[in-house]
Design a protein that fits this description.
globular, single chain, 10 helices, alpha+beta, about 290 residues, 2 domains, binds zinc ion
């Protein structure tokens, strides 16, 4: 059946140079991650055919670490293996953390351009605190180039209330049309204009790594916006957009960076203070080696 369905073609069949044999793949029915198919060759005596999650990116398959970690079909031992790998404090993770903080003004600009949401400094601080506390800079899928997007990869939702929404953006149009008492203030920020209380939450999730037809690595992340607590309407998702991550654009900007302006300098100072505060409370997060302080 495997051969009939796939004609033994790439990416379903791939030669693995490490194991020196052809491996056969399928999708996990739940998380859609790549699974190596085991015992599908009808050996004698018959062994139970099954799928085994691949924890690393397999060429030709979408890779979403969040979805694999959340998959109920993932073996407990594999889940632990993944979790351990993504919580180890490596030298690379420490470098990424510094890179994020030392370029935080450029991260903020990139975030606003790509999402259409300009956050005020307090909101940035809150997101950065959670990002550091959860050790997300240690994730193996984080790179210096994708930090402006992965930095906002939060399972928490943040209030859009008071944030500036880009003029003419589909996000702004969706919010204004689906929240009856939403309005725009003098600085283009989202305001509550009526008496009805509501919340509008947003976040980024589902970071997916894949290869395009030319073999280049592409990354996407999904921006989602929800409304809650509108008395006359049910809680619902009101906007979703898959954003293309542009690591090369961000890294070029970092390479050409100049002295920040006043608000950029204030953002940098906030980011440095937030990191210093995090390290003061987590001495174990200062050095990569165990027991160092
Ligand atoms: Zn799965």
């Amino acid at each position: 059946m495997f051969e009939a369905a796939t004609e033994n073609r790439y990416p379903w069949s791939q030669y693995d140079p490490n194991q020196q044999k052809v491996l056969r793949y399928g999708h996990c029915p739940e998380c859609h991650g790549a699974m190596q198919l085991i015992n599908i060759e009808n050996p004698n005596p018959q062994k139970v055919p099954h799928g085994r999650h691949r924890l690393k990116h397999v060429e030709g398959f979408d890779y979403c670490l969040e979805r694999i970690l959340g998959c109920s079909k993932l073996k407990r031992s594999k889940k632990q293996e993944l979790e351990t790998e993504n919580t180890i404090l490596t030298q690379d993770a420490i470098q990424r953390r510094s890179f994020l903080v030392e370029n935080f003004n450029l991260v903020a600009v990139m975030f606003a351009e790509e999402t259409g949401i300009s956050l005020y400094r307090k909101q940035f601080k809150k997101i950065l605190q959670i990002y550091l506390e959860n050790g997300w800079y240690r994730w193996t899928t984080a790179t210096c180039g994708n930090l402006p997007w992965l930095f906002g990869r939060v399972t928490f939702n943040f209030s859009l209330y008071g944030q500036t929404l880009a003029k003419g953006s589909p996000l702004r149009a969706a919010v204004l049309s689906q929240i009856p008492s939403a309005g725009i203030g003098p600085r283009e920020q989202l305001l509550r204009t009526g008496t009805e209380y509501f919340t509008v939450e947003f976040g980024l999730r589902e970071h997916v790594v894949r290869q395009d037809a030319a073999g280049n690595t592409r990354e996407t992340i999904t921006l989602h916006v929800h409304r809650k607590g509108v008395r006359s309407l049910p809680d619902a998702k009101i906007y979703e957009e898959v954003l293309e991550i542009k690591p090369d654009v961000f890294l070029r900007r970092v390479a050409r960076k100049t002295e920040p302006n006043r608000s950029g300098a204030a953002l940098l100072e906030m980011a440095r203070d937030t990191l210093a505060d995090y390290l003061a409370r987590h001495p174990e997060a200062r050095e990569p080696s165990k027991g160092a302080s």
